[in-house]
Specification:
The complex is a heterodimer of chains A (206) and B (243).
Chain A lengths: L17 E6 L8 H15 L5 E5 L11 H7 L3 E6 L2 H14 L4 E7 H10 L6 E10 L7 H7 L9 H12 L5 H10 L8 H11 L1
Antiparallel strand pairs in A: 1-3, 1-4, 2-3
Chain B lengths: L1 E2 L19 E6 L2 E6 L9 H4 L8 E2 L8 H7 L21 H4 L6 E8 L6 E2 H13 L9 H5 E3 L4 E2 L7 E2 L2 E8 L3 H11 L6 E9 L9 H6 L7 E5 L6 H4 L1
Antiparallel strand pairs in B: 1-4, 2-3, 5-10, 5-11, 6-9, 7-8
Helix pairs in contact in B: 4-6
The chains are: A alpha+beta (206), B alpha+beta (243).
């Protein structure tokens, strides 16, 4: 599944949302040399840990479940990291480039911003995947504001009903915006949900 | 998913966590108990993983064919549906630095039926596949959905699976860039004949200018290119090149 591709929102909505995917060819995940490279990638990410709003691996849960050290020891073939700042994402990308790990890196975000960041550090983007949005019986979809949050989990594990349930709890003073964002993020099994962006969007809703 | 009604206390804690709103209260031996509607449930496992049931009353039974297709299309832990043995890897953009399957002049397309969060029946997926086959689409042999087809030339599935469903059923194929208008027209047309939604993703190899080569085709066909995209930044090295 194209996990982070179909995130909803207008161009302004993505200023704090950059998902980095670092991977090796799946059939080489247990190659000793590649394992070392993946662990080195986690080392790079750990130096930016304070600026990561989420991280994880496919089927490994996000930062709510494990720390970077534990993910590093697991050595899966794929790493996710979510940045809220373009320049921090660029700095991390530059460090990975400088280390010449040979791993493939994909960055999801506003295309022009990601392209610009690549060009500023001398990278030539190789391939792009872009979205034409949703067609069909769109009256079945929830409100766009709801989708802006729920589509941050590409597996659709963050249900619109849960979001509305948590909004009611915020309104009732039983939950803070940050707590609600974390509860939403907890449902995402790959660590690509952006709780910081969710919190910002929740504040616009209630 | 099945709720053990003897253990369930009818607290409704699990209800909002269901990705498709399939859990509701029913009368059972004079008490209110939760139940997952088996027609709507996509076997995604979100209710169990949420861990909110105070009585551990939710369980996933051993799924049999064809119902287990639901978990393949919905549960992140179930894994993708396997492709046919010996098929090349699907034309995925994130693997393109290694596979090179998305070459210049070609567009890889993934139509994710049921996404975002609506779910879709394989009956509707078949309608879309048949509409695509009718305009000459050859489905990606590396895709599990292609492996389900009884005849990839027509896009048909066997009748016994048509009532199964999933949160996101991915139809994958590649076409020459100049075939994009007819494919997008077919997708637009079939979108009015289904009871669900689908999301469309297009992938292209970029040249040094990093201008998306097919964006104009999509816009001419009446689609809006979303600002958000996935960019493979050009750092991947194949084993051959790296050694």
């Amino acid at each position: 599944m194209s996990h982070s591709l179909h995130r909803c929102g207008n161009a302004d909505s993505f200023h704090d949302d950059y998902v980095m995917l670092i991977m090796t060819s799946p059939d080489r995940a247990n190659d000793p040399d590649v394992k070392g490279k993946m662990q080195e990638a986690w080392d790079v990410l750990s130096s930016f840990a304070a600026d990561l709003t989420n991280y994880g691996a496919v089927k490994g849960g996000g930062r709510h479940r494990k720390g970077i050290k534990e993910f590093k020891e697991e050595v899966k073939f794929l790493i996710h990291a979510v940045f809220t700042d373009r320049d921090v994402m660029k700095a991390c990308l530059k460090e990975i480039k400088n280390r010449d790990l040979g791993l493939s890196v994909t960055v999801s975000g506003h295309f022009d911003e990601v392209k610009g960041a690549c060009q500023e550090i001398g990278l030539v983007p190789h391939t792009v995947q872009y979205s034409l949005g949703v067609v069909g019986k769109t009256e079945l979809l929830p409100d766009e504001k709801v989708l802006e949050i729920t589509t941050m989990c590409g597996h659709a594990m963050v249900s619109p009903n849960l979001l509305l349930h948590l909004v009611k709890k915020i309104e009732a003073g039983k939950l803070t915006h940050a707590e609600a964002a974390l509860e939403l993020s907890r449902q995402c099994e790959c660590g690509i949900f952006n709780p910081a962006r969710a919190e910002r969007l929740l504040r616009q809703m209630v | 998913m099945k709720v053990n009604k003897e253990a369930c206390i009818g607290c409704k804690a699990c209800h909002p966590y269901c990705t498709v709103g399939a859990i509701s209260l029913v009368e059972w031996e004079g008490k209110k108990k939760s139940e997952a509607n088996q027609t709507d449930c996509v076997e995604c496992g979100a209710c169990i993983r949420s861990g909110v049931c105070p009585k551990d009353a939710i369980a996933m039974p051993e799924l049999e064919w064809p119902r287990k297709l639901r978990s393949h299309f919905s549960n992140p832990y179930a894994g993708h549906l396997p492709a046919k043995k010996g098929a090349p890897p699907a034309a995925e953009p994130k693997l393109n630095e290694w596979t090179g399957r998305i070459s210049e002049g070609m567009t890889a397309i993934v139509v994710e039926v049921g996404r975002p969060g609506v779910s879709a029946s394989l009956r509707d997926v078949q309608k879309i596949c048949m509409a695509l086959a009718a305009v000459g689409v050859e489905f990606d042999p590396g895709s599990g959905v292609t492996a389900l087809m009884t005849d990839p030339a027509t896009g048909r599935f066997s009748d016994d699976i048509l009532n199964e469903k999933g949160l996101s059923v991915m139809i994958q194929f590649s076409i020459a860039n100049n075939a994009l208008p007819s494919v997008l027209r077919a997708l637009r047309e079939v979108s009015s004949r289904i009871d669900t939604v689908f999301s469309i993703g297009l992938s292209n190899r970029l040249d040094g200018s990093a201008v998306i080569p097919t964006a104009s085709y999509a816009e001419e066909a009446g689609f809006t290119v979303r600002p958000h995209a996935k960019t493979v930044v050009g750092l991947g090295r194949s084993k051959r090149e790296g050694e």
